[in-house]
Amino acid sequence: MKNNKLQWIIGGIALLVLPLILQSFGNAWVRIADLALLYVMLALGLNIVVGYAGLLDLGYVAFYAVGAYMFGLLASPHLTDNFAWFASNFPEGLHMSLWMVIPVALLLAATAGVLLGIPVLKLRGDYLAIVTLGFGEIIRIFMNNLDHPVNVTNGPKGIGMIDSVQIFGFDLAKRHDILGISFNSVTLYYYLFLVLVILTIIICYRLQDSRIGRAWMAIREDDIAAKAMGINTRNMKLLAFGMGASFGGVAGAMFSAFQGFVSPESFSLMESVMIVSMVVLGGIGHIPGVILGALLLSALPDVLRYVAGPLQAMTDGRLDAAILRQFLIALAMIVVMLLRPRGLWPAPEHGKSLSQKS
Amino acid sequence: MDILLQQIINGLVLGSMYALIALGYTMVYGIIQLINFAHGEVLMVGALTAWSCIGFMQSAMPWAPGWLMLLIATIIACVVAAALNYAIEKIAYKPLRNSPRLAPLITAIGMSLMLQTLAMIVWKPNYKPFPTLLPSTPFQIGGAVITVTQVLILAVTAISLIAMVYLVNYTRLGRAMRATAENPRVAALMGVKPDMVISATFIIGAVLAAIAGIMYASNYGTAQHTMGFLPGLKAFTAAVFGGIGNLAGAVVGGVLLGLIEAIGAGYIGPLTGGVLGSNYVDIFAFIVLIIVLTLRPSGLLGERVADRA
């Protein structure tokens, strides 16, 4: 027991010190860690939908986009520049604090999730996948085209000049010196994201062991049996959609604050597929597995950048880092499903295994 | 009036391409209850193979007439697509036939991504101009215009449909396919080899997809590695619209979806006072899909099937 506690403390210190070490190698490395943390959050959110409730959602990136655009609109001069009504009421623009942003992003994305869920939840798994995929594309088409007649999203150009996160007047976009150690902006974001990820993990664990979590898993294993046991499957599925979406929304808001810029390009179908493959490769429904999957897949492209250089020269420019990454993800999805259908680090089986269902 | 007629012609052409692709989806789904996400990519590989073949023939035998080149290229593309789809089924779907439904769906998405990437490596990611091999002088029909390619598309679709209906309803293979769709285990007891039937289904679907791919490329004049994705998705919508697993349904759904898209694209601008433009066309298919699945999940012509629990 004591040993266990020691492990936690060492792990915690390692996580806290990591960005300080990385930042001495350059901010780019800390950025990679920051984005990896965001992906962990997204993957954990999707894991609620795919892993616990067993609903394959291929449009998850839509909720990420909803969160990101929400923050982008509220925290940039875009609305003030484009709407006279808005400019007269808020000449300085809305600049909401973090404590407002997180609940609003959460609620908005959850609402979007439930709204999407209502028409589609009667569908079987594979129909659901297609409809959610379509929903993700619809959101992207709207983001791309809503720059006329009313300029809401600024179209493919995206929204820029988004505020950074400020906590009690402490601006995360600036460099701070505390106790003789200088913290770069990316490092500060790392700590913010780390806190959010830890919160997400705690919520996920609590959910998993709760009545709701058990109901979700019952639905995943057998919809009809779950219904017979008195579970309100429709409400439970809606709840899964809403909860999963809310994590996506918060992650999206953080992403747009971190980047200072959002455009439809960041929310392509490929991104949804990436998040699904993080969940699936890591181990559907198993929190440590999902975290592993998210870290592996989000760090992969940056590792590939170093390998891809010589390879690109060898293959006459046909293979670059992006193509190689896409190829490896596709390959991993197929191979892992064939060889380890339950993921790299699957949940320990208790009782009946998933594979007995035919 | 001319605009309406023109949009109806465009819609029929678009719809018949959707119908051909949807047939592949619906047959595969009818037999193994799997959405073959890679179907759109088979279409793309077919079109790009044809593009390569035509390019080769234009330099190797410039004396040959356009229709001959198109014919040869189509045959080669069909063979390549059939082999590809056969291999996809054997590699990615067959080992997972008895696992939970999510598993083959994920390998299917992986396959789709993989084929796109491979095509990008083999053919490079640029848009390739697809040569016009048929005479391009259009016909006039009551103020609307139709090209030779479009007439050919309608004709080939009609012929393929008749062939499919004959195949499924009046041949030994068709009977085996229907039996396997109904119940693979009992069909096997009656001497049908389900594996053979499934392979045959994938091969037929691939041939139809390759033909549709070449039509698509010659109608729009370009080919690229992502060209298969959206038509694939829409064709799936068409299959669901008409009632998945039902051949006639796939055709009806495809043609209707094509008409909805073409007429919608023509009229959405004026109708909404310019608020929504034709760049929203891609949304129609998804909206149709959501409405159909909510109101009539079995599709227009589909029978009500019990959920396989």
Task: Please tell me about this protein's structure.
The complex is a heterodimer of chains A (358) and B (309). Chain A has 358 residues and is mainly α. Chain A has a domain at 28-267. Helix content of chain A is 70%, strand content 3%. Chain A has helices spanning 2-25, 27-52, 61-74, 78-82, 84-89, 98-120, 125-145, 185-209, 211-221, 223-228, 233-259, 269-282, 287-314, 321-339, and strands spanning 166-167, 170-171, 176-178, 181-183. A two-stranded antiparallel sheet of chain A has the order 1-2. In chain A, helix 1 crosses helix 2 (27-52) and helix 3 packs parallel to helix 7 (125-145). Chain A starts with a helix and ends in a 19-residue tail after the last helix. With 309 residues, chain B is mainly alpha-helical. Chain B has a domain at 15-227. Helix content of chain B is 72%, strand content 3%. Chain B has eleven helices and four strands, in the order ααααβββααααβααα. In chain B, the strands form two sheets. Chain B has a two-stranded antiparallel sheet. In chain B, strands 2-3 form a two-stranded antiparallel sheet. The longest helix of chain B has 31 residues, at 2-32. The radius of gyration of chain B is 19 Å and the shape is globular. The termini of chain B are far apart. The model of chain B has no long low-confidence stretch (mean pLDDT 85). At the A-B interface, helix 7, helix 12 and helix 14 of A face helix 4, helix 9 and helix 11 of B.
Percent helix among the residues of chain B? over 70%
Measured by DSSP, the beta-strand proportion of chain A falls in under 5%
> What's the helix count of chain A?
14
What is the average per-residue confidence, as pLDDT of chain B, rounded to a whole number? 85
Give the termini separation of chain A: 42 Å
Low-confidence stretches of chain A: none
Could you state the order of secondary-structure elements of chain B as H and E?
HHHHEEEHHHHEHHH
